[in-house]
Amino acid sequence: MKQPHVTLSPADHEKISAAVTRAELQSAGEIVTILADRSDGYTDIALSWSAAVALVALGVMASFPAPFMGTYDALLADWGHEWTPRAIISLAAAIATLKFAGMALIQLWPPLKFALIPGPVKSARVHERAVRAFRIGAQGRTTGRTGVLIYLSMREHRAEIVADEAIATKVDPQVWGDAMQAMLAHVREGRIADGLCAAVEQVGDIVRPHFPRADDEINELPNRLIEV
Fold first, then answer.
1. How far is 60 from 68, CA to CA, in rounded Å?
2. Per-residue confidence (pLDDT) for residue 78, from 0 to 100
3. Domain TPM: where (predicted)?
4. What confidence score (pLDDT) does residue 216 get?
5. Average pLDDT score over residue span 153-166
6. Could you tell me which CATH number the domain at 10-40+118-227 has?
7. Gap between the Cα atoms of 180 and 87, Å rounded
8. 39 within 8 A of 126, measured Cβ to Cβ
9. What distance in Å separates the CA atoms of residue 26 and residue 219, rounded to the nearest whole number?
10. Cα-flanking dihedrals φ and ψ of residue 21, to 5°?
11. pLDDT tens, position by position, 133-142
């Protein structure tokens, strides 16, 4: 998959808008496409990793204190340094603080930060963001409740398809899998616009048998790609 951050060209935007227009001419479905750089900041995960590293460092020091105390003596202390309980606690606190800060700093590099995020957490956050975006921008905003959101989140390498009430009652959620696979096959090769177009086409094919387009159908949701 092409590395984020991805910004599509005007030609790509036009291609996706045209694909949405074609799909909507075949059914009563209203398709919204969103391309996100990421779905969450994952600050809580980064802090959890930093805390875990600090705790591991404290555990190692508790099990093998001599190397830490010897290094401190060699680098900073004079020959008459005495290891009191207060001095040991201060050393432990300094080590924990340095480890915490160091882990937090290296996670400022996005590739490492996202590599350390568990897959289920990424999936859950992308799903939550997609559902939230759908509720804000598409849910209940069409006359027949036939909105469909195609949501692609680049840094997590994940996508979601969320359908409005009328479509959700007719289409099994597993059916969207074909549209997802059609999209991701292109996205993995860096063809983001082609992937979104393929998903739009598949969604149109899925919706059409259940909700054929009426003669007086009007366009109720934007056909353009939304980048966030």
1. 10
2. 64
3. 128-205
4. 61
5. 90
6. 3.10.310.50
7. 58
8. yes
9. 12
10. -60, -45
11. 888 876 666 6
